[in-house]
Amino acid sequence: MRNKLLGCLLSTMLISCSGTQTNTPEQENTSTNLPVEREGVKVMTLTKGDFHHELVSNGKIVARESAELYFRTSEVIAKIWVKNGTSVRKGQKLAELDMFKLNNILAQRKNSLAQATLEMQDVLIGQGYDIDNISAIPEDIVELARIKSGYHQAKVQYEAALHDVEQATLVAPFDGIVANLFDKPYNTSKSGSAFCRIVGCSAMDVDFTVLESEFPLIKQGDKVEIKPYTSTQETFTGKITEINPLVDSNGMVRVKATINDGQELFDGMNVRVSVKRVVPDQFVVPKTAIVLRSGKQVLFTLQDSIAMWNYVQTGLENMTEYTLMNTEGSELKEGMTVITAGNVNLAHESIVKTD
After folding, report:
1. Taking a C-beta distance cutoff of 8 angstroms, is the pair 210, 202 a contact?
2. Alpha-carbon distance 201 to 66, whole Å?
3. Which residue in 133, 183, 318, 329 is a FRET match for 216, CA 20 to 30 A apart?
4. Which of 103, 104, 81 lies closest to 91, judged by CA?
């Protein structure tokens, strides 16, 4: 009886083991034929076209007409007719010094000149010449008489005194606005410091700098857009008029542009400057089409649902696009399909699908 039970147990174990080692054809197909998941990408056709190049820099507004006005002598300021922010016209009086001392000096210099003139005439009469017909007297004789009488020195002193009187009243050299006026009446003027500044409002320029590497990309006549940092919406336009052909110690080149209708801008304002120009016949791709692999720029093209890895070198750029350089010796050709999105995690010859 015991032997029969052992025989039945062994038979059951053998049947169980043989059942776990047998696979059906359906089970084999299920384990080997797994579906392949494709990456979804966006594409575009590579073509040559115009590239809208944009170079961005910081700049300052500069009035095309600007002048600092000085009193030539240190005297008490008698009158001031304007203040900061006052609009003035060309020739309008701004301020005046106390004239008593200046007029007194002018009168003395005028009297000295008259005395020197008489002494010169006495010298000529003493030599037998007719002073009523001075043009007939030899020039060297007249010159000698002028020196001997002190005529030249007296005339120079008179002209200097006359100039001081004329400069004692400041007038506006052109239409503009008064700025940097800090002196007060009844205080002594400072001959070495500017009394005020007149800023013309009829025309404004913008000064900005570009990198040495960007210098070949700009030229006179290029259009610019100017946007003040104090305004989020208003934009002004202009064009480049001057490019200083020198590179400073920081590797920067100074550029000046005129502004169209810049009357609302103020001298010294900080602005954002965009230089825009069209570069024709370029391969242009979105910035999203370029990814980095081991520090190198890579562009994926699509061939029969397979992503192909291409090393590229970008050239010009604006806010959203790059141009491609050195494409003549590469495999990139016009009409190829370029992957522009969904390429961050792609590898060479990845199977993809277009969205």
Report:
1. no
2. 9
3. 329
4. 81
Rounded Cα distance between 148 and 141, Å, is: 11
CB 106 within 8 A of CB 165: yes
Query: pTM value?
Result: 0.60
Selection from 184, 173, 174 nearest residue 84 by Cα: 184
Please list, residue by residue across 262-276, b when 16 or more beta carbons sit within 10 angstroms of its beta carbon and e when fewer do: beebebebebebbbe
pLDDT band at 304 (very low <50, low <70, confident <90, very high): confident
Predicted local confidence at residue 216, as pLDDT: 84
Retrieve residue 240's tokens.
Answer: 């480049």
